[in-house]
Amino acid sequence: MTHARAPQLSDATADDAAQGAQAGREQSAAPAKAGPFAAEGSALAESMIARLADIEKRLEAAADQTRALPDEAAHHLMRAGGKRVRPMLVLLAAQLGDPARPEILDAAAAVELIHLATLYHDDVMDDAPVRRGAPSAHAVWGNSVAILTGDLLFARASLLSARLGPEAVRLEAETFERLVLGQLAEFAGPDEGADPIAHYIQVLADKTGSLIAASGEFGVRFSGADPAFVAPVREFGEKVGVAFQLADDLIDLTSTSADSGKTPGTDLREGVPTLPVLYLRAAAAAGDASAVQIAELLDADLSTDEALEIARAALAAHPVTEQARTEARRWADESIAALAPLPEGEVRTGLEAFARQVVDRAG
């Protein structure tokens, strides 16, 4: 278990954080929409929305604690919102079998708890001040509380998985292992002589693709669907997870703050080696003079908004950004192709629509 010292907050920061925590307590997460997973107003959409309400109750119950601090911290991000993509994927994949099985609700709640737990840990590692429009947990209570709260939610997810039997426990453990290994690989960087782009893609597959793949598998297995559907649904999840994160790279680089909710170029300021940056450095190493100039901008001091904007605009205008967009679309297309063994119908259509939306949001 990781231990870290709590940051020392100024009085003003502490007050802002406390107000954000209070706002989170007063406002529960808004119900997610069924789109793009199901056509708006369809029987499937209405059924998924109704079942998602039941999942929200399970999430609230799983986070409940008798003592104030763990109770407030465990509910903090849950009540800040979120699209509940992973539970929706469980519900949609369950349509391949018997979606009314009660096990589906526990499975969907478990994957969302795992996702929430990773957010607590990620925010500590990234020193992120805000999550979902509210102060991050470590900004409110300090690093140690945030890390322990993530551990607590992992434990509650494990209890839900245990209700489902050893197969669910195995799937959760394997997914958790990949989440941790992906985070460690990101922290350590590629080995000497290794391809940094291949390393980055593997990090995305482990940190994002693995849990999306597990969500689909939970839906297939615990709805009693044909086990032959597990492999294509898992492959879809792995690939669409990579596409999702590659699209996020582009959103950070090319969107406005109004669109993304954060300052454009934040990844550049933090030195995150996103795909456009990796492509740019490869181009610079190959002798592209314009890439060399932009790499120098990226390596300079980006602490001022002016310097950041100059570097961001230059990278966004370079052909490597369009190259990264093409790669994100390729991963999305491959995720759709993986669905070929599934029967035609609402499940396949919904998964395809999700994959397209993932990359469409990046322009």
UniProtKB/TrEMBL annotation:
Keywords: Magnesium, Metal-binding, Transferase. Its cofactor is Mg(2+). Transmembrane segments: none annotated. Pfam families: polyprenyl_synt (PF00348). Residues 11-35 have a biased composition (Low complexity). Belongs to the FPP/GGPP synthase family. This is Polyprenyl synthetase family protein. It comes from Brevibacterium salitolerans.
